[in-house]
Every structure is written in C-alpha cells, then in structure tokens.
Amino acid sequence: MATLEKTVHQERYGSLSDLLDAHYALLSSPTEEVLTPEDRTRIHEFLDKGAATGAVLDNSIDRRQAQGLLDYWVSTLYADSRTLEDTRESSSCLPRPQARLALFDHATVGEAAENADRFIQGFSNDDQEVARKVLLRLTELESKTGMPRPLPTTRSALEACGDPKTSRPVVDGLLEAGVVRHVGGKPGEADEQVALATESLLRVWPQLQQWLEQRIRFRDTVQYWVNQGESGDALIRGELLDEARDYHDLNDQEREFVTRSRNSEISQSQRIKRSRNWFRALFIVALIFGMVSIWQSRRANYSLKKEEAAHALAEERRIAADEARERANEARKKAEVLVDIYQEENQRCAAMREDVDQVVKAGYDVVESYSAELGATKIAEPVLDFMMTLEASGLRTSVTPGLLPSHDTSYDPDFLGRQIDLPRLLPSLSQEVHDGGRPIEYLHYSLIFDANRRAAIYTACNYDRSKKQDVRRGPDRFRYEARVSRDNQLGAALYTHNEFDRGHLVSRLDIMWGSRDSLNIDLLQSAVNIYTNTIPMYEGFNRVLWAAIEDWVRTEHNPEADRISIFTGPVFREDDYEYRGAEIPRSFWKVVVSRRGGNSSDLVTNAFIAAQYDAADPSRPIGQKSVRRCRTSVRVIEQLTGLDFGSVADFETWRPAARRE
Q1: Do residues 430 and 451 touch, judged by C-beta distance below 8 A?
Q2: H/E element holding 267?
Q3: Is 571 helix (H, G, I), strand (E, B) or coil?
C-alpha cells in the first residue's frame, strides 16, 4: 500500500505553508543583481514543485496566494532573462515564461485519506484513541470563524496525549505512514515539530472530519450554555466531559464550562451516594423487621412441628419395638431348632475343639515370642500357616465356620441403584495383575491384586450407613490369602521391628454393617486382617491422617445418602522407597461415590490423595496434614494410577482453586 507521504508529497510541497517557507528561502538566497545558474536551478525546482502543489490545495484563497508566489518567480526569471540578453549571454539558460498552478486533484487527496483510514484501522482500540488525540492536537479552532486549521506541534506535546509507551509508537507510525510530517527540529527529539501531511485532509478525510465535528459541537454546546445564562441544565458529564478535558485549545468560556461541569458531576455523585446510603439504611431496617417477623413465625411453626414429630417418633418406636419382638421370636424359634439339631454333634466334638484351641493358642504365643525376641518371622510362618489352616477348616472354636465370605457378599456394582463398575485397568497395568484381572472377593468388598508389587492395585467396598453395627474389636491376627501365591504377598517379615503398620485398604469399620446376627468379631477380623488387604504405612500416617480421611468418608461424605461405594488404593511409582525387598508406596488415594438423593440419577463424588513420606527423605514420614488439603479430583487419580473410573469422573464435587495460605 502506498503511504500517504508518497501519495501527497511526491514532486510537490505538502501545503501552502511549505510553499511559503520555500519562497522565503529563495528570497534570502540571491545576493547579486544577476541570478547565478545555481539560483536559476533552485527557482526552476521551486516552480515545478510549487505548480504540482496545486493538486493538494482545495481552498481558493490558498490557491490564489500560491499562484501569486509562482507568478512572482516567473517574473523574476523573465527579468533575469532580459538582463542576460542585454549582456549577450547564452540564451540556453532562459526559463519557462510561466508556471500555472495545477488543478486540485480530489482523487489524489481522496486516495491519501483512504490510505490514512486503513492505517488508523490497523491500530488497536487503545491506539486508535491515542491517534485521535494526536491528530486533534495537530489542529485548532480559529477564534473568529470557529473553523479548524492545522497547528504544528512538538513531539513532546503529542506524546503527552497518552502513556508515552503507547503514544510514542503511534506518533512514529503516523510519521512513517505520512499521515503527519516532520516540519522542524531534530527528528525523534522532544522539540521536533510535527504537522498534518496536508491541510486538505481537514476537508476530505471523513474520519478526521468526524473527530473535528465533535470538537466543534462541544464549542456549540458551550455557546448554548452561555446563551442560556450559564444554566446548570446545559452542563455535561461522563464520557463527554472526559473528552472535553483533553482538548488543548479551550478558550476561557470553554475552560469555565468544563470546570462547572466537573463540579456539577462531583456534586451529583455525592448526592447519589447519600441517597444510596439512605436507601441502604431503610432496606436494612426493613430487612431486620422482616427477619424478626419470619423468626417469630418459624418459631411458632417449629414448636408445632416439634410436638407433631414427637408424637410421630413415639409411634414409630412403638411399631419398631413390635417388629423387633416378632423378629426376636422368629430367631429364637430357629435357634431352638438348630440347637436341637447340632446339640449331639457339638457334644461329640467338644473335646476335640478344646484340644485344638490349646494348640492354636500355643502356636500364637510361639509366633509372638519369636517375632519379638529374635525377629525370626520366617521360622514362625509355618506355625501361622498351620493355625490359618485350622481356622479355615472350622476346627478352631473362636472362628466362625465359613471364614472366607461367599461371593454374594462382595462388591456389588448395583449397590447404589445405579451401576458403578469396577475401575478399568489400562493396558500398562494388566501385565502383572493377578488371575487376569479377576477380582478377589471378601465380605462387602473386592480387590484387584498386582502380583509384581505384591499388593492390591485397588479395593472396591460397599458401605450402608443405615445398617452399621457396633461389634467390639478382637485380637489383630493376620493370615495369608490362599488364592494367591504366598511369594506374591507382603507377609509378616516386612512389619517386624520398624515403624510400619499393616495399613488396611478396607478397614474393619467399612464392612461392619448388615444383619446383627450375621456379624461377629472373628468374621470381621478375618475379612480385613489378610495380607492382600494390607500395605505398609508409617504408623504416624496410618493412625492420624489416613484414619481421619476414613472417618470423613464414613460420616461427612454426602450425609443424605445411606449407601456409598468406596474405592481405595496406592499410587505405584518407579521411584518408591525400597525396604526389605518391598517397594513402599509414597501416597494413597480414595474415591467415594453416592447417589445425590431422591430419584436423581446424579452422583456425588469425593476424591483424596495423601502422601506418607517425602520423596527426598523416605525414611521420615510426613507430619500431620488436614483432610481438606488432601482433596483432589478423580481425573488426577486416573492420571497417577492408570485407572479409568468411567462416568464417576463426570460428577466432580471439587475443583482446584487459588490457594490462600
């Protein structure tokens, strides 16, 4: 695109002012009565460029003045040529007899204005505003006619039209494009003189005319204000006032008008502020009265509902008591039948059970003695195997027959009334998974086992708050899982004489629910105290932070829901701390899911990640950290573990926010 500078100033002067400057320069040059060849050459160049300047002069007065200058120098050349004839010098130096001012070329200036428009539109909105202020700063309104005219201005004044970091590039861009031109001083310095490229831009450039019309309308507004006796109704405010304060050529009336408008704006703002304060005060008073009325009404309703609820509760308790008595009678009758059936068998086996109990007790004492005094867990493990065999066979009286729970009581995907499948393992996790990824099932939970890491990849547990029971805790005795090779389990040798607990992925409280008659100490202990469900945890971590997270899940997660599903597991990393041939996970996670309530199919999901030691020093456990700071998202757990929780991740109830320490 041709710049405005090339369009307007090629072989011509930019304005009548430039033409006058060149004229005065020629007047000061000749010192002899007869022009030198150099003088004649400069006059010829002046006449050529001066005549071409007519293409950008659209004012008749300016054109007459410019033509007069050309005629003057034509006459000067003519007079000099006569002198040359008298002195009989060569006639080859004779100038042209005349120079006629070129006709105004609207297309030339119009193209320049279009180029200027395209250039200005290339600015950002902020830079366009700075360009508007710069171009208005290069004009002024005549005091008599009120019409705009060019006003050469210093660069420092133009750069003051905005932030220098913004205004300086805008001024440089306008100069480079030729929208404005350098007319004096050292380029780039503060005292550099800058002017519009040509005065005709004031009349042919629509964008500049629009900005100038706004300036003229402001002067008309001030005149109207004066004619109305300086009435306050004619004052302005807001954006119009801000724009008027930027005008550099304000006269005395305009300055007074701006001052009055500003004072009026401040007064009105203060009145509005006072009114808002009064309305706010009235609103607060009304709100207080309304709240008192509502409180009194609710208090009366609460008393009535409390009385009704007391009657309803009493009726419910009576009905529940009747039902409990009926169930107790039925259970008693069944128990009597069972007692009759097994009484003879129990009498026959009583002696044998007593002997087995003594052997088992002696075995446990041997194991504890060897572990505590010699740390010889490998020696005691055969004895443990023997005792576990007795327990599994049902010969030990303190263990309920059927120690291993049936598959019907394991994790149920439909437990919530909406199918929540076990998390899917990505291909990277399926290489070492036990039994092809088939879950190992226990009482109310199932787990997926990693034979390589000798630990569970995750556990999936169902928990029903409405059916929780209170069964006292028995002695903690752990056993190996018969369905997994013992070499693939982290056994008792790992936990001897150190700070590690046998950390439960599924705790005893998570499965302590259901029918009271079906739960006992041995069943609960044997269902969770198994090496496939345990993993090394520092005791300070297991008994404080991890226990707090487990308690939060059972009590605080979605209190409206009775049934929840709990997924738990470690985060396996390649740089996990290695201890006694086992890789100790640095951190553990939990994902808790429940129904939102009512008939809604939406879910409520909470997720946690907690670290038990720092990677820089695995031998020192991390101090206590709040449960809140362990909150995370299911997506993060998926990325760290390689698991896919499916639609569960679509119901996040937590999003990371800016930390406020």
Answers
A1: no
A2: helix 252-373
A3: strand
Q: 3-state SS string over 109-143?
A: HHHHHHHHHHHHHCCCHHHHHHHHHHHHHCEEECC
Residue among 24, 50, 49, 29 nearest 40 (CA): 29
Among 188, 180, 74, residue whose Cα is nearest residue 134: 180
Three-class secondary structure of residue 194 per DSSP:
strand
Report the SS3 class of residue 191: coil
Q: Coil, strand or helix: which one is 258?
A: helix
Separation between Cα atoms, residue 87 and residue 602, nearest integer Å:
112
Which residue's structure tokens are 């302590």? 512
CA dihedral 374, 375, 380, 384 (to 10 degrees): 140
Give Cβ neighbours of residue 106 (< 8 Å, ≥ 6 apart). Answer: 58, 204
Tokens of 38: 């150099």
Q: In this structure, which amino acid lies at residue 354?
A: E
Categorize the per-residue pLDDT at 643 as very low, low, confident or very high, splitting at 50, 70 and 90: very high
Amino acid at 152: P
User: Could you give the residue ranges of the DSSP H alpha helices within 597-652?
Assistant: 634-641
In angstroms and rounded to an integer, the radius of gyration of the C-alpha atoms of the chain is 49
3-state secondary structure of 577: strand
Three-class SS state of 592: strand
* 328-332, 513-517, 554-558: least confidently modelled range: 328-332
Distance CA(442)–CA(511), nearest Å, equals 10
The pLDDT tens digits of the residues spanning 577-598 come to: 999 999 999 999 999 999 988 6
Give dist(CA 546, CA 505) in Å, integer.
10
Condensed to tens digits (0 to 9), the pLDDT of residues 529-577 reads 999 999 999 999 999 999 999 999 999 999 999 999 999 999 999 999 9
Classified as helix, coil or strand, 566 is strand
The beta strand positions in 393-529, using DSSP E, are 424-425, 440-442, 445-450, 455-464, 500-504
**Using CB atoms within 10 A of its CB, is residue 225 exposed (0-12), middle (13-18) or buried (19+)?**
buried
Residue 128, Cβ density class (10 Å: 0-12 exposed, 13-18 middle, ≥19 buried): middle
| Maximum pairwise Cα distance, the chain | 164
Residue pLDDT, tens place only, 411-466? 999 999 999 999 999 877 666 799 888 999 999 999 999 999 999 999 999 999 99
Assigned token pair, 253: 């009336």
Q: Six-digit token pair at 446? A: 């199932």
CB distance 47 to 75 below 8 Å:
no
Record the tokens describing residue 270, joined without a space: 């203060």
d(CA 567, CA 423): 9
Cβ burial of 404 (10 Å; 0-12, 13-18, 19+) is middle
Give the helix/strand (H/E) hosting 527: helix 521-528
Q: How far is CA 186 from CA 161, 175, 191, 194, in A?
A: 20, 14, 7, 11
Residue whose C-alpha is closest to residue 75's, from 104, 32, 43: 43
67: exposed, middle or buried (Cβ count in 10 Å: 0-12, 13-18, 19+): middle
Phi, psi (rounded to 5 degrees) for 26: -70, -35
Helices (H) and strands (E) in the chain, counts: 17, 20
The two structure tokens encoding residue 478: 């752990």
Cα distances from 247 to residues 134, 159, 200, in angstroms, run 11, 14, 22
> Using an 8 Å Cβ cutoff, are 147 and 136 in contact?
no
Q: Tokens 């022009």 belong to which residue?
A: 35
d(C-alpha 251, C-alpha 304), whole Å: 78
